[in-house]
Amino acid sequence: MAIANVLLVDDEVPFVETMTKRLSKRNLGITSAFSGMEALARLSKESTTEVVILDVKMPGMDGIEALREIKKKHPLVEVIMLTGHATIETAIEGMKRGAFDYLMKPCDIDVLIAKVSEAAARKRKQEEKILEAKLKEITLRRP
Amino acid sequence: MIVIVVSITPMVLVSGILLYQFRSSQRDKIHAHLAELVQSHKQSIDSFLKERLNDIRFLVSTFSFEELANDLFLQDRLYTLQEELGPVFVDLGVVNERGIQTAYAGPFKLGRAHYAEAEWFRKAFAKEHFISDVFLGLRGLPHFIITVRDNWNGQNWILRATIDFVAFSNLVSGIRVGETGFAFIVNRDGEFQTKPIREPVEVKSCCSELIADGSGGGDKVRILEKRDQSGNELLYVASFLKENEWLLIFQQDASDAFADLNRAVKVTILILLLGGLGIISMAFILSKRVISRIARSDQEKEMMDEQIVETGKLASVGELAAGIAHEINNPVAIMVEEAGWIEDLLQEEEFKESKNLDEVKRALRQINTQGKRCKEITYKLLSFARKTDSRVNEINLNELLEEIVALSSQRAKFANVVISTDLQEDPPLVSVSSSEMQQVFLNLVNNSLDAMEKRGGVITIKTRVGGDYLVVEVMDNGPGIPKANLGRIFDPFFTTKPVGKGTGLGLSIVYGIINKLGGSIEVNSTVDAETTFRIKIPLPKNARKKDLLTTA
Hints:
heterodimer, A: alpha/beta, Rossmann fold, 5-stranded parallel β-sheet, globular, B: alpha+beta, Beta-Lactamase, 5-stranded antiparallel β-sheet, 17 strands
């Protein structure tokens, strides 16, 4: 089983391709998208995605906007902002809007995997809690 | 030049018009004054003559011919008249039809004198009464006579009285105005009837002119201004008297008559000249000042333009840098990832035997390292290019410094540095941009932290009011700055930090900000002891006053 299921979103095709290969090699389940819209479509189709790695600057729907949409539709999915822009402001903005963390391009792959693992763990924990709550509700429900 | 013309022309025009008005009115006034003078004297002379004639008429009508023909009686009458009037009448005589003086009273021996041939006698006999012109007569002295004709026993006779020439002359010579004004009387032939004080110049020509002008006679006073041969302007005022036979002429040099007027004109012209001179010099001074001010502002504008161009250049360089920084990280990331991918692949069995494996791995690590370096560079470039908010607010610097301490506390902990503060309570507010101040103090604190990273230490931030300034000191007991570097630390791009760590811009930005505020920054450092940056921020003017009051 993969360490985590990741959706990699970036308009830089070579980056996505290489990253996919490298992350797959490190036992991560990777799907990819090249724009914000595509990412949203993928998320709707594949419910297994746990972590989205999201580029900030993309044509059309940018990272911040995509983040807002993802959080609206899939609040449990964790998002790590990955930016080639060395501006702190967008990173801070992302964090405020519910991103799990931010990373600057180029980033160390091990750091990235560590962050992805943390994010996935948090997501699973959240899901567990929700499951627990549901279970409690079901078991305590009176016939 | 235009300024001078514009300011002087109205002044000259106004003064000219005023002067002209003043001159003509003053002239009229002087003319009127002289005319009045002449008129009044003419009247008094006329009345003098009339009175003397009446005196003689009185004698003729009061006394009979027999009485008057008596020398002794006549002598008595003469005495009586002289007693009454002074020596006005010189002598009296009774002349018969044949021109023989039958009786005489007076100082000359003129008894039985024959006047039949004398001109006056003919004229006197033709008229009931007669006043002659001045003539020498038998006595050889200038005199004139008054005669009154009467009839006795069918025969005409005349009583003749001689008027003292000197007494009569005094009537006229008493008229003196100024230094050169005097009067005299001439008859219609231009012969003097009184003795003028000075010999009137060209009296003939001017008299004839006056006589011709006044041929109609009457009470009218005539005024004539004429230039004599020597070029002197003369003023004549004349009036006829004695039934238009004589002319009373008053003569004065125009320069004397109009002395006051001329003086006023001279003073006005002097004032005009001085005023003009003042205007010209003021115009010069003012235009010079204006020109120098324009030149200065031009220079300032030029400098400002240069600065704007420079700032514009910097700004566009900054924007360019920011644009590059934004875009460069993506390709760098791809390169780094590709290198990483190669590294990943090298782990596979088929490459493990390769003899250059280590060398390839080293090269890949290098690519990775340099990629990260690129990231650092672009990050710094962006920070530098980013515009700080330079809006000025009144802020409490203590709060800002506490914030700096809080921001740096994490780094300080790792560097084993304690940041302490010694802040003056309730300091006066300063007008500064808080983001610029953050930049200033964060740069100073960061520099201290960088310097003390190895050994740890204490940073002290101190504020106090000194004179018109709020003084902030940032002290550390780090390694200090070598003397050789002290003079250069504010130079742009001067850095002692390892390559890739410092940009050399921090302190020059600090210096620029403080300088722009009108403050100052100085540094004292002793190697291996301590370093102090002392920043003076000017207090707003109202705060200075308040401070003075509290210290007083």
